[in-house]
């Protein structure tokens, strides 16, 4: 039994030493095997992360979970801010943590994190990307901006913003399901008119 206690003590001692080294800057913390954007990027709401994920998937034409150089080129062209080949490489290099030459979803979120923290240079293509991806009243219209800011204010005043956002997503799904049911019923009615 003392052997188990000794090994448990050694394990705890090793963990405490590693934590001390991390706090002192002598060691790097290990990355979790599973990436959770909601816990790692707490400054973004659940809706914002979902919107960014939708945009990431839209431009990840290879469907490999990464935005490579050519996909980033296409993305910047579609957003109206084309970049040179060297500019694109510099954009990737600025947030490429694993040095694979492409952007994972985590690195994509890092762009917006750095933009919000003011860590990107003014002439950076990443800053341009972050600014072009935000809500634009001229595109969304006043109603879109009004809904956006109302949702923001509600989330901030809510005791648990994630619960409110999850509820909103559930309501949205219910509304979409109701619309599908109505469309199916209208289609069946129209179909029966043609089959008679």
TrEMBL record:
The gene is Efhd1. Residues 152-186 form a coiled coil. One of its GO terms (molecular function) is calcium ion binding. Keywords: Calcium, Coiled coil, Metal-binding, Repeat. The keyword ATP-binding does not apply. PROSITE patterns: EF_HAND_2 (PS50222). One of its GO terms (cellular component) is mitochondrial inner membrane. It holds the Pfam family EF-hand_7. Residues 47-82, 83-118 form the EF-hand domain. This is EFHD1 protein. The keyword Chaperone does not apply. CDD domains: EFh.
């Amino acid at each position: 039994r003392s052997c188990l206690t000794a090994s448990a003590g050694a394990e705890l001692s090793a963990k405490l030493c590693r934590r001390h080294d991390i706090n002192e800057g002598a060691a790097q913390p290990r990355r979790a095997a599973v990436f959770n954007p909601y816990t790692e990027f707490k400054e973004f709401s659940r809706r914002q992360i979902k919107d960014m994920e939708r945009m990431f998937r839209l431009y990840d034409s290879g469907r490999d979970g990464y935005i490579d150089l050519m996909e980033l080129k296409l993305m910047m062209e579609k957003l109206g801010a084309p970049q040179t080949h060297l500019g694109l490489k510099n954009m990737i290099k600025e947030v490429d943590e694993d040095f694979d030459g492409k952007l994972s979803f985590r690195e994509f979120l890092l762009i917006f994190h750095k933009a919000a923290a003011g860590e990107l240079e003014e002439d950076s293509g990443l800053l341009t990307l972050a600014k072009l991806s935000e809500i634009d009243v001229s595109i969304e219209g006043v109603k879109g901006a009004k809904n956006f800011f109302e949702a923001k204010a509600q989330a901030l005043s809510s005791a648990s913003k994630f619960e409110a956002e999850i509820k909103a997503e559930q309501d949205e799904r219910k509304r979409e399901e109701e619309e599908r049911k109505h469309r199916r019923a209208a289609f069946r009615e129209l179909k029966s008119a043609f089959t008679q």
